[in-house]
C-alpha cells in the first residue's frame, strides 16, 4: 500500500498480530486430502447446540428482516432470573471478545496499563494494543496456578484493568474463593478487575470462586461469560457481562446499537432453559477428561488438572512438529508454542470416539517424531 494511503493509520495497529484461531476442519481436509477430520482445537461443545436453541432459531428465521432488540431485553431478563441480579447489571456482547474490546475502548488511554496472567487468553492483550495501552503479563506459578500476590505487585498507578481468567485458558487452572476474597480486598480501587469466566459452567470443584458472588457483595468486578462454550453457540457470537451499573453504563456508550444479532439472542434465551443439555455437556466433559487423562497417563504423560473443557500436557517434544504430524492424521489440536507454553499441547475434550482418535494418533506420531525427553 502506498504511503499516502497509510499515512493516518495508528502505529500501534501494526504491532497487532492477527488472532490465530484453531485451524478450521475444511482447511485441513483440503490441505491433506482427508475426508474425516477431528477438531479438538477451539473448546467447542462436541454435543452440538441445544435442540431447544435450534428450534427457537428456526422460528426466529422468519423475522430476520427486522432489526434485533438492541437492548436484548428478553435475554437480560432470562439471565437476571438465572443468576439473581438486576437487568441493569447485565450487558450483552457479540461474543465476550466484543465485551473485552468494548471495555478496553471504554477505559484505556494510550500509555495506560493492564495486568494479565500468563499464559492466558490473547484478547486482553489485543484490547490493550488497540488502545495503545501496555500489557503487563504476570506468569502463573510452575504448576500453572495463579500468583495473585505477583499480580497485585504488578499494579501501578497507570493500571486501569486487571484480567483474571478462571478457569484459565489454556491451562484449565482456577482461582479459589478464599484467594479471590483476599485479592479483591487488597487490590487498589483505581483498578477494574475483570473475571473472564468463559468456562464457568464446566467447573466441578466446590472451592471455585464465583465472580458473581463477589459482585453481589459489592465488589467492583466485571464477570464475563459466553454462550460459545458449554451452550454450544460459538457460531452465533453471544457473550454477556455482569457488573456494577455505573461501569456497565460507561461501557454501553461504546457499544454498537445492534451488537448482538437476533438469532443469537433467541438461541441464547432458549439454551438457558435447556438444563438437560447443560447437564449432559458437563457429564460428557468430565468423562472425556478422565478418558484423555488416563489414556495419556498410560503413555507416560501427566495432564494438568483442568476445570475447563480442554486440557494441556507437556509432551517433552517440539509441539509444532507434533501439531503438524497430528494434522496429517486428521486431528486438529493447539500447539503450545502459539499459546506461550512451548512443548505443550492443548486438547479440547471431545466425544469418546474423538478422544480415542486423538490418543491413537498421538501415540503414533510420538513414535515417529522421537523419544520423549
Ligand atoms: C472462548 C473464550 C472466550 C470467548 O469467547 P466468545 O466466543 O467471544 O464469547 C473468552 N474468554 C476465554 C478465556 C475463552 O477461552
Automatic annotation (TrEMBL):
Its cofactor is pyridoxal 5'-phosphate. Transmembrane segments: none annotated. It catalyses: L-histidinol phosphate + 2-oxoglutarate = 3-(imidazol-4-yl)-2-oxopropyl phosphate + L-glutamate. It is an enzyme of class 2 (transferase). It comes from the Bacteria. GO terms for molecular function: histidinol-phosphate transaminase activity; pyridoxal phosphate binding. Residues 35-361 form the Aminotransferase class I/classII large domain. SUPFAM superfamilies: PLP-dependent transferases (SSF53383). InterPro entries: Aminotransferase_I/II_large, HisP_aminotrans, HistidinolP_aminotransfase, PyrdxlP-dep_Trfase, PyrdxlP-dep_Trfase_major, PyrdxlP-dep_Trfase_small. Pathway: Amino-acid biosynthesis; L-histidine biosynthesis; L-histidine from 5-phospho-alpha-D-ribose 1-diphosphate: step 7/9. GO terms for biological process: L-histidine biosynthetic process. Its EC number is 2.6.1.9. The modification N6-(pyridoxal phosphate)lysine is found at residue 229. CDD domains: AAT_like. Keywords: Amino-acid biosynthesis, Aminotransferase, Histidine biosynthesis, Pyridoxal phosphate, Transferase. It holds the Pfam family Aminotran_1_2. Homodimer. Belongs to the class-II pyridoxal-phosphate-dependent aminotransferase family. Histidinol-phosphate aminotransferase subfamily. This is Histidinol-phosphate aminotransferase. It comes from Tumebacillus algifaecis. The gene is hisC.
